[in-house]
Amino acid sequence: MRASISAKERLVVTLRYLATGTSLADLEYRFRMGKSTLSVIIREVCSLIWSELYPKYMKMPCINDWLEIANKFEVSANFPHCVGAVDGKHIRVIKPNKSGSMFLNYKHYFSIVLMAVADSDYNFIYISVGAYGKDCDSGVFKDRAFWHNMINNTLNLPGPTSLPNTNIALPYVFVGDEAFALHQNLLRPYNSQMLDAEKSVFNYRLTRARRYVECTFGILANKWRIFHRPLNVSLDLAVDVVKACCLLQNFIHKEEGVKGVQESLSGCELEEFLPFDSTEMVPTTANEIREKYKEYFNSEYGSVPWQNNYC
């Protein structure tokens, strides 16, 4: 019997496919393997990358992990109590057979949705892949387990604590764009119509934190050039390819670091995020929480010198 294809060769073929976006026909001549063999190898390796690396490089954070993420967001984005940025990205695919317009998005091409939560180090905290391209970000997010865990308080988020240099106790929050619904743990910008100065400042400060998920998507598409063209594979394999690329990005960042990311953070230690004991009532509705953040960002303690230049 002929020698089998080694694990090293299988990994090299898969990484070549993901990193360059080359076709199976090109890989067939470069590695002297049949298209059907290459297809099976790529599917198996992507699935194994997810199953083997997921528990270490994309596990659900514990309380201390959330506190560390919030500390980094405060240092890099000047947004305290932020534990992640939420957004969706459309992944181009060739129109699946007998799918009608289910995968046709508002940008007029066929896609599946990558819904993700990212931290300030451009790592994915959570991803969900495979929703129809026609679905809006808010609808996709509300169908995910992450949303249900958030509204049921089972994400292990820290309890409300005081904002820096104040006695205002507020919950830890995620930030998203206008497509998402407002929630006690999810902030979105104010409507762009009839904004006053304070609301404009809040929108600017929220956008500074939210841009990290946009940059994370940009790094993903630039590093793994399979996303520079529509994925001409089955939907199951497309989902496995996206999940593997997101996980490999976390692997690279956590093992090798990200150029330009400050490794040693100065400022608040984790002990300073202990629950705040105050007689002041913690806001309970989403609108009240957003108003408190708006007041903080426009106060002496929460403002930054340049914020009025961008509003």
Task: Give the helix/strand layout.
Blueprint: H1 7-20, H2 24-31, H3 35-57, H4 63-77, E1 82-92, E2 111-118, E3 124-132, H5 137-142, H6 145-151, E4 161-162, E5 169-170, E6 173-175, E7 186-187, H7 197-223, H8 235-256, H9 286-297
Parallel strand pairs: 1-6, 6-7
Antiparallel strand pairs: 1-2, 2-3, 4-5
What would you note in describing this structure?
Helix 3 crosses helix 8. About 7% of the residues have low confidence. This protein has a five-stranded mixed β-sheet. Strands 4-5 form a two-stranded antiparallel sheet. It has nine helices and seven strands, in the order ααααβββααββββααα.
Average pLDDT across residues? 87
Q: What's the alpha carbon Rg, rounded to whole Å? A: 22 Å
Apparent shape: elongated
Read across the widest sheet, the strand sequence of neighbours is 3-2-1-6-7
Low-confidence stretches: 260-280
Helix content: 40-55%
GO cellular component, one term: nucleus
Domain DDE Tnp4: 86-250
Pfam families: DDE_Tnp_4
Subcellular location: Nucleus
Write a short abstract of this structure.
By secondary structure, the protein is of the alpha/beta class.
Index terms:
HARBI1-like; nuclease activity; 43% helix; nucleus; hydrolase activity; nuclease; 7 strands; 311 residues; alpha/beta; 5-stranded mixed β-sheet; two-stranded antiparallel ribbon
